[in-house]
Specification:
It is a single chain. It is built from six helices and 22 strands. The N terminus is likely disordered. Strands 1, 2, 3, 4, 5, 6, 7, 19 and 22 form a nine-stranded mixed beta sheet that branches. Strands 8-11-12-13-18 form a five-stranded mixed beta sheet, with helices on one face. The chain has a two-stranded antiparallel ribbon with strand order 9-10. By secondary structure, it is α+β, with helices and mostly antiparallel strands. The chain is 18% helix and 34% strand. Strand 9 and strand 10 form a beta hairpin.
Length: 360
C-alpha cells in the first residue's frame, strides 16, 4: 500500500491535526489553504537483542541460546520473542503511514532462519518482505540484515564489507561486517549501509579506536559512492555503540546535526538534536545513550520534492516497550535481565525516519 499525506509548505511543520482515512490517505488540516499530496516511506532500524534460534551451531558460540544452555532458550521463548519483535516492527511509523516500515535494518540476528520466521509471522506476513543477509565472522555469531517490501524496493546489488581489527597481541578480532545494499525505492536509486559497530566492552575509551576504524570504513564506502555520483542518496544506519556527539560519529564519519549549519562534505544526523534534548534508545546505569542512529547524505535535503527527501526522525518508544518495575524501570523492556527471561522485547528502542515526495 502506498501512503499519501496532504500537506502544505515546509513538509508538515505547520500541521494543526491529522485525521486518518480508510483508503490509505492521510487528510491533514493545515495553516494555509494551498495543499499537495506526498508519498511517505518509513525507514527503520532495530537492535533486536540476541535473536537466536534454539539450534546449536557448531561454528558459533551460541551454546547458551539452546534449550540446555545457560539461558534455557526454549522453543516457547523463541516463539514469544519472534511474536514481540515482529509486532513491534509492524507498528513503527504506523501512526502516520497506516502500514509497517518499507525498509528495516536489523542487528543482533543469528542467521537467515530467524529472519524468515520474522517475515512469516502473523504481524508481517501480509507485507511480503524480502531479506538480504550475509554471515559475518563475529565471534558471538550475530549479524546485521536488511528487510525490504518487495512492492516498493528492488535490490540491485549488495556486498558485505569486513571490518578488520587487530588486537594488542597481533591477533584478528572478529566483528560484524558492514552491509551495503543498493536498489531502487519506487524507481529512485538509494544506497543503504547497515552497521553494528564494536561494543564498549573494556570501557568506552579503551574500545574507542575500534569504533573509529568502523567509522573510517563507513566513510570510505560513502565516499566511494559519492565519487561516482556527487548527488548519491545514501543512508547509513545501525547500532554504532557511540552517541551522535562521539568522536567516531562527529569527526571521523563527519556528521552534523543542524540543517542550517551543515558544512561541505558533512552527513546529516537527525538524531543529534534528540540526543542533546535528553532522548535515547538505550539506557545504562541511569544514563541514556542514543547508539541507534540513521544518518543521511545531503542529497536527501534538497528542495526538489519530485524525489524522496527527508521529513523527520524519531525514536519508537511506545509504552509496551518500557519496563514498568524493578531495576530497569523506565528503560527498554529487555528480553533477558540478570540471567533470567523477562518476556520483554529488546534492550534497545527502534529508530526511524520518514522520507516523502510529491505524489504524481
Amino acid at each position: 500500500m502506498t501512503t499519501y499525506v496532504t500537506q502544505v509548505v515546509s513538509k508538515l511543520r505547520k500541521v494543526i491535526y491529522v485525521a486518518v482515512g480508510t483508503t490509505g490517505l492521510l487528510f491533514v488540516q493545515l495553516t494555509q489553504a494551498q495543499e499537495a499530496r506526498y508519498q511517505v516511506k518509513t525507514i527503520a532500524f532495530y537492535n533486536v537483542e540476541n535473536l537466536f534460534d534454539i539450534i546449536d551451531d557448531s561454528l558459533k558460540f551460541d551454546e547458551s541460546r539452546t534449550p540446555d544452555g545457560k539461558d534455557r532458550w526454549t522453543r516457547r521463548k523463541y516463539d514469544d520473542k519472534i511474536e514481540k519483535i515482529s509486532f513491534t516492527i509492524a507498528q513503527i511509523g504506523r501512526n502516520i503511514t497506516q502500514t509497517s516500515p518499507d525498509i528495516i535494518g536489523l542487528c543482533e540476528i543469528e542467521n537467515e532462519s530467524v529472519l524468515l520466521d520474522l517475515i512469516k509471522s502473523n504481524h508481517l506476513r501480509e507485507y511480503n518482505y524480502g531479506i538480504i543477509h550475509t554471515e559475518s565472522p563475529d565471534i558471538r555469531g550475530i549479524d546485521v540484515a536488511f528487510l525490504y517490501k518487495k512492492s516498493c524496493f528492488i535490490p540491485q546489488q549488495f556486498e558485505s564489507h569486513p571490518l578488520k581489527l587487530i588486537s594488542e597481541s597481533g591477533e584478528r578480532e572478529y566483528t560484524r561486517d558492514q552491509l551495503l545494499v543498493t536498489g531502487r525505492l519506487d524507481s529512485e536509486k538509494i544506497h543503504f549501509i547497515i552497521n553494528h559497530w564494536p561494543s564498549r566492552r573494556g570501557g568506552e575509551i579503551k574500545s574507542a579506536p575500534k569504533r573509529a576504524k568502523a567509522a573510517k570504513l563507513n566513510r570510505k564506502l560513502i565516499d566511494s559512492l559519492i565519487n561516482l555520483n556527487i548527488s548519491a542518496k545514501i543512508i547509513t544506519m545501525g547500532d554504532f555503540n557511540d552517541d551522535p556527539n562521539s568522536r567516531s560519529i562527529q569527526k571521523v564519519l563527519n556528521t552534523g546535526g543542524h540543517l542550517k549549519r551543515l558544512k561541505e562534505h558533512q552527513l546529516f544526523n537527525p538524531m543529534y538534536t534528540m540526543f542533546k534534548a535528553g532522548f535515547g534508545s538505550l539506557a545504562y546505569r541511569d544514563k541514556w545513550n542514543l547508539f541507534d542512529q540513521i544518518i543521511l547524505t545531503p542529497a536527501f535535503l534538497k528542495d526538489d520534492e519530485t524525489f524522496y527527501t527527508f521529513w523527520k526522525a524519531g525514536i519508537f518508544n511506545s509504552d509496551y516497550l518500557i519496563s514498568r518495575e524493578g531495576r530497569y524501570k523506565g528503560y527498554p523492556f529487555r528480553s533477558y535481565a540478570n540471567g533470567n527471561y523477562t518476556g520483554g522485547y529488546s534492550d534497545h528502542f527502534p529508530v526511524y525516519i520518514y522520507l516523502i515526495k510529491k505524489a504524481p
